[in-house]
Amino acid sequence: MTIRSLAIAAALVALTATSGLAATVQLNVAGGQLLGARNVDVNGTFYDVEFVDGTCVALFNGCTSASDFDFSTRTLAIAAATSLMNTVFLDGPLGDFDSDPALTAGIEPSTLDFGFISVPYEFLPGSVSAGTISFWNEPGDTDNLSTTSRIKLTTDTSNIDEIVFARFTPSQITAVPLPASGLLLFAGLAGLGLVQARRKTDEAR
């Protein structure tokens, strides 16, 4: 491999390292309970999510217009719920969050043995309810998505064992910095590559 090739390779490594994003989903677990997660990918945008109990009105800025919600379209709400199913509600070393719904904050053990996680996306005019995209976690079964669910604005999920809201906020993802030694190596190799290229140009004249 020539010096010029090495310089090009070093440049590619540097560009990759400086443009990479720390976007691995990180679960927020305390005392064995799944409280939420960081860096959940929803159609290419990363969010932090927390599972919270309460009323739609209290948790989503009044819950009286689509702009009050984290996702204001049905398509985005479906994408958010699907991402939770595929990347957060999985069995792993931190807990069996797919097999045991009661390990999720806001979901209490019950005879029904499943939990609904709801993502509201629209206020229904002329109604006292909001449209939600929900999926239910059920032991030993594939998670199922419900695209027609709704919940009353004043219903307090703190009093319902099986329902919890998923509340999303944009993630603060930063670029992965290239170590100082890597920058020095890149600069040195790039300089050598330029010298070699100029030498070949002079020889061709």
Care to describe what's here?
The longest helix has 25 residues, at 180-204. A hairpin with a 2-residue loop joins strand 2 (33-42) and strand 3 (45-52). The two termini are 25 Å apart. The strands form 2 sheets. Strands 1-2-3-9-6-7-8 form a 7-stranded mixed beta sheet, with helices on one face. A two-stranded antiparallel ribbon has the order 4-5. Helix content is 29%, strand content 30%. It has 4 helices and 9 strands; from the N terminus they run αβββααββββββα. The protein has 2 domains: 3-20 and 176-204; 26-170, no CATH class. The protein has helices at residues 3-19, 56-59, 74-87, 180-204, and strands at residues 26-30, 33-42, 45-52, 91-92, 95-96, 115-123, 129-137, 144-152, 163-170. It is α+β, with helices and mostly antiparallel strands and 205 residues long.
